[in-house]
Amino acid sequence: MKKITKETYINWYKDMLFWRKFEDKLAAVYIQQKVRGFLHLYNGQEAVLAGALHAMNLGEDKMITAYRNHVQPIGMGVDAKRVMAELYGRVTGTSYGMGGSMHIFSKEKGFYGGHGIVGGQIPLGAGIAFADKYFGRKGVTITYFGDGAARQGSLHETFNMAMAWELPVVFIVENNGYAMGTSVARTANHEDIWKLGLAYEMPSEPVDGMNPVAVAEAMDKALSHARSGKGPYFLEMKTYRYRGHSMSDAQKYRTKEEVAEYKKIDPITQVLDVIKKKKYLTEKEIQSINDEVKNMVNECEKFADESPYPEKQQLYDVVYEQEDYPFIKHRL
User: Fold this and answer.
1) pLDDT, greater one: 199 or 313
2) CB under 8 Å to 54, separation ≥6 — which residues?
3) The dihedral formed by the CA atoms of 111, 116, 119 and 122, expressed in degrees to the nearest 10
4) Which alpha helices (DSSP H) does the chain contain, by range?
5) How far apart are CA 41 and CA 39, in angstroms?
6) Is-contact 107 63, C-beta < 8 A?
7) Are strands 182-183 and 178-179 parallel, antiparallel or unpaired?
8) How far apart are CA 192 and CA 300, in angstroms?
9) Are residues 55 and 216 in contact, defined by beta-carbon separation less than 8 angstroms?
10) How large is the angle between the packed helices 283-306 and 6-31, nearest 10 degrees?
11) pLDDT at residue 70 above 70?
């Protein structure tokens, strides 16, 4: 695995703090109705992404996930300003303002969404991996889904096919404890979701999803397995979300005390504690990063605010692309 250094911890702190503050800003502008529709935030789960990115080969590996998908593309290299503009429904967004919160996408950076259908991205992730194997490419596809999606039949169909074809895919269930508002304990007679992979003889294991080091180590092992041609790997990232399933969630299914307990092992705090203990940064340098992150978020908000909405003509521009249909041309 790539060595975890002083620079790794500093980058983790800056990145995870930016992701957290970026989404805190989204929560604020959502209340102002600048962002409409559904909004699913990632607060608390940042270590799952930070650790994965450390182990990935960006440019080769690909990623696909569900609708809690704002910070992943940023981590993959997508311009954060364009991500926020997409959430605002502006033409400068990643999908020209037509995808919104649940459909961030960037083929250029290897991020394939953003999918609103629960579990719908699981077979799609295997399909991307199939394409890589078919065309002889080196990439591995990281396929994320939530604990609720683990109960979908598409998971079992995909696991079976992925193992039969030895596809280069790493399946990751981000188990944040609640499928929308239903606890994992109430959805099945077992709570260890990772054991589902064992039925297909797929290498599977649980991971501390609140610790980026643990995530990086597990991801390196899983990615190496898949990249070497041995087929899929399944990881259960045991994590937690501090906010509701979406901004409309009243969160009556859990207590404030429970959330407070998980905040004691916050991934950003864990990384910052190591930085302070090992004296990687002074208090002044830490504050400088905090200020830089605040300015970066403000720049994203300003860009989105000042970007125009799409013209109505765009609705037609993206529908038709047919040589013998001259009436409406596909122009994007």
Assistant:
1) 199
2) 1, 2, 4, 8, 12, 212, 216, 219
3) -20
4) 6-31, 46-55, 71-76, 80-87, 121-134, 153-164, 212-227, 256-263, 267-277, 283-306, 314-317
5) 6
6) no
7) antiparallel
8) 39
9) yes
10) 40
11) yes
